[in-house]
Structure formats: C-alpha cells, structure tokens
Amino acid sequence: MGVRHINPEGLPSNPAYSQAVVVEQPAKTIYIGGQNGVGPDGALAGTTLGEQAAQALRNLRTILESEGATLANIVHWRIAMAEGQAFEEGYAAFQEIWDTSNPPPAITGQIVSGLARGYLVEIDAVAVL
C-alpha cells in the first residue's frame, strides 16, 4: 500500500497510536469530514461520550466501506471531545472497533469547550488505499 507507520527512537511508544504515518507513493486518499454520534435517521445516538463515539466510528466505517476501504486504511484521526467528558469512554469505543493486529494511526486529540448542537465528540480522518 505504500504506507509506513513510524515511531522513532527517542519518542514515547504507545500501542494506541503511531507518532507519524508516511505515504510513500501516490495513492487514493479519502479525507473524511467530522463525524458525530448521529445515526442514519439524523437522531443523536445517545447522551454519553461512549455512545456518541461508537456511532461516530460506525459512521466513519460506513464511509470507508462505500469506497472499498476499512478502518485499517486510516492513517490519521483527529478527535475533538467536549470539555468535562470522560476520555476513557471514547477510548473504550475505539478499542471495540479497532483490530489491534493493525498498526494504529497517528491521532490528534483535542478537548474543546463545546461542539455544534451539543455533540460530545467529533472525529475526522484521513485514509489511504
């Protein structure tokens, strides 16, 4: 696929994320806009960060599958969580869908004062096929 996950010596190593991801050659790239915990009917999937994160991740998976990709094709996540939420709930939702036999993507996490419409989480991603 021409993608390398790098964790250089001298930086902390963590099984939950890669320090960087290098794309070696031109490839099909999918830039996924911010996904919230909203189901196909447009309704919020729940009132907790865990419920909303699980739905946002399902939304990401649906987008990827529509292009013949999987979550393993993601090279970068950006996750924004509303201030005061339990980070562990969102991480638990991620652990439920991520196949740990794949190297983890690079991840940027942000705590924000709030998100549109009272959402608790928003996740965008870049995938390379």
What's this, in brief?
The chain is of the alpha+beta class. It has helices at 49-66, 87-97; strands spanning 3-6, 20-23, 29-35, 74-82, 106-112, 121-128.
Describe this structure in words.
By secondary structure, the protein is α+β, with helices and mostly antiparallel strands. The chain has one domain (3-128): RutC-like (60s Ribosomal Protein L30, Chain: A, 2-Layer Sandwich), CATH 3.30.1330.40. It contains two helices and six strands. The protein has helices at 49-66, 87-97, and strands at 3-6, 20-23, 29-35, 74-82, 106-112, 121-128. A four-stranded mixed β-sheet has the order 3-6-4-5. Strands 1-2 form a two-stranded antiparallel ribbon. Strand 4, helix 2 (87-97) and strand 5 form a beta-alpha-beta unit. It is globular, with a radius of gyration of 15 Å. The model has no long low-confidence stretch (mean pLDDT 89).
Task: Flag low-confidence runs.
Answer: none
First and last CA, distance = 6 Å
Which structural class best describes the helix and strand composition?
alpha+beta
Strand fraction equals 25-35%
Which features would summarize this protein structure in a list?
two-stranded antiparallel sheet; 4-stranded mixed beta sheet; alpha+beta; 60s Ribosomal Protein L30, Chain: A; 6 strands; 2 helices; 30% strand; 129 residues
Topology, element by element:
Blueprint: E1 3-6, E2 20-23, E3 29-35, H1 49-66, E4 74-82, H2 87-97, E5 106-112, E6 121-128
Parallel strand pairs: 4-5
Antiparallel strand pairs: 1-2, 3-6, 4-6
